[in-house]
Design goal:
Belongs to the peptidase C54 family. One of its GO terms (cellular component) is mitochondrion. With 266 residues, the protein is mostly helical. The protein contains eight helices and four strands; from the N terminus they run αββαααααβαβα. It folds into two domains: 144 residues, no CATH class; 104 residues, no CATH class. The N and C termini lie far apart (50 Å).
């Protein structure tokens, strides 16, 4: 299992990755690419996503617990990656790209710090594992998608820098009333918002709360969910991330309802 603890910088993704030649478009988190004319852009987009996997030799969880999550931390790491993408869109924007030997914005390092394997990081393996005890999971026990979503919802409360509100969509159902409730609260405070999964966002730490919806089915069109901005609602992202498809038709149905909801608010 040690092979699973390889660090990202030991992999030379751009050198060995071989893409099939196809006329079909390549979709990456709401962006459309052509393999024939945009291979470099595809590689850059993929290389800019944050990747978390099994680690070892980190400080013991809880002081005396595990020092590695090999074999049990897969779903915890998946939850971290979902949140990492939300934070990247929140603080850096969907157009941000990691470039080797180029100084990155301070907010990039702040996002990374939120996931470092230590007890004082917002979304560390330590925080997730210990918060999971309240969900009936002992430290070192495997999580399912719902458990990690519930835990991350609790942890997001303490992340005042990102100011995310997390909605858990149970039973493959996204409850629009719950999401719109957060938006109405923001609008009551004269907050200007729009819904988008891939627009840029300012970096001010005092910005309004964003809504992150997590459910045990996958939703969102390949092109993303985006309501057009107008003079009243300048662009600000509302990430809707639903990590796992459980039933046929879930993707198409959820896409239609989510898109209709966002557009209806304009």
């Amino acid at each position: 299992m040690d092979a699973a603890t390889l660090t990202y910088d030991t992999l030379r993704f751009a050198e060995f990755e071989d893409f099939p030649e196809t006329s079909e478009p390549v979709w990456i988190l709401g962006r459309k690419y052509s393999i024939f004319t945009e291979k470099d852009e595809i590689l850059s987009d993929v290389a800019s996503r944050l990747w978390f996997t099994y680690r070892k030799n980190f400080p013991a969880i809880g002081g005396t617990g595990p020092t590695s999550d090999t074999g049990w931390g897969c779903m915890l790491r998946c939850g971290q990656m979902i949140f990492a993408q939300a934070l990247v869109c929140r603080h850096l924007g969907r157009d941000w790209r990691w470039t080797q030997r180029k100084r990155q914005p301070d907010s990039y390092f702040s996002v990374l710090n939120a996931f470092i394997d230590r007890k004082d990081s917002y979304y560390s393996i330590h925080q997730i594992a210990q918060m999971g005890v309240g969900e009936g999971k002992s430290i070192g026990q495997w999580y399912g998608p719902n458990t990690v979503a519930q835990v991350l919802k609790k942890l997001a409360v303490f992340d005042t820098w990102s100011s995310l509100a997390v909605h858990i969509a149970m039973d493959n159902t996204v409850v629009m009333e719950e999401i719109s409730k957060w938006l109405r609260v923001s609008m009551d405070k004269k907050v200007e918002i729009t819904g988008s999964i891939h627009t840029s966002s300012p970096e001010s730490p005092r910005e309004p709360r964003r809504v992150l919806s997590v459910a045990p089915c996958r939703a969102g069109a390949p092109w993303g969910l985006c309501a057009k901005p107008d003079a009243r609602w300048p662009r600000s992202p509302i990430p809707v991330v639903i990590p796992r498809e459980e039933s046929p038709g879930c993707l198409e149905a959820a896409t239609w309802y989510l898109t209709s909801c966002f557009v209806s608010w304009l």
